[in-house]
Sequence to fold (211 residues):
Amino acid sequence: MKKIRVSFPSGELFLEGVLAIPEGAGPFPAVIVCHPHPLYGGNMDNNVVYSLSEALTQASLASFKFNFRGVGGSQGEFGQGIGEQEDVEAAISFIHTVKEVDSKRIGLAGYSAGAGFALPVGLNDVRIKALAAVSPPLRMFDFDFLKDCPKPKLFISGSRDDFTPADQFLEFCQNLPEPKEYESIEGADHFWWGYETRLAAKVTAFFTKVL
Fold:
């Protein structure tokens, strides 16, 4: 795979990201991966974001991870969730112009608060064809907007997640419209240490199928 460090605009700010292009001849489907909460140490080098990005690219999907405003080399400061949604929109616009990417097959994934920032944008952006939420923090964000979401969607959480109890997670997923997939991984907590490979394989299989 080929990894390219990029700088792309979000409003008046410039954000940093890493674009990974698979081996072979494109254009490839692509997935944008959004990292956890910036105020709690979240960044694009997070273990889950890294694992997802690597697995996607090895499965012949381009992956794009980036740092939200105020994180790492990205300009600005935390935007109270509003700015972060603008950053997601900017990332979609960026990946849409990459020549190696099939602009009609773009997915969006978010981990923890990254799902809270990303999915409202992905729901309403026609360029996004499928959504995935890893460990969506149902106690921190209102995800009820997804109850009218017609796009393919994947929800995956750990049975020992302290931010979203497994019974609450499963009840939420059961009430979502099709098409959907969801799973609670036995033994995993919110941080997925030791479960990254298993998680990444499931997310990659979903996007491989729907994009």
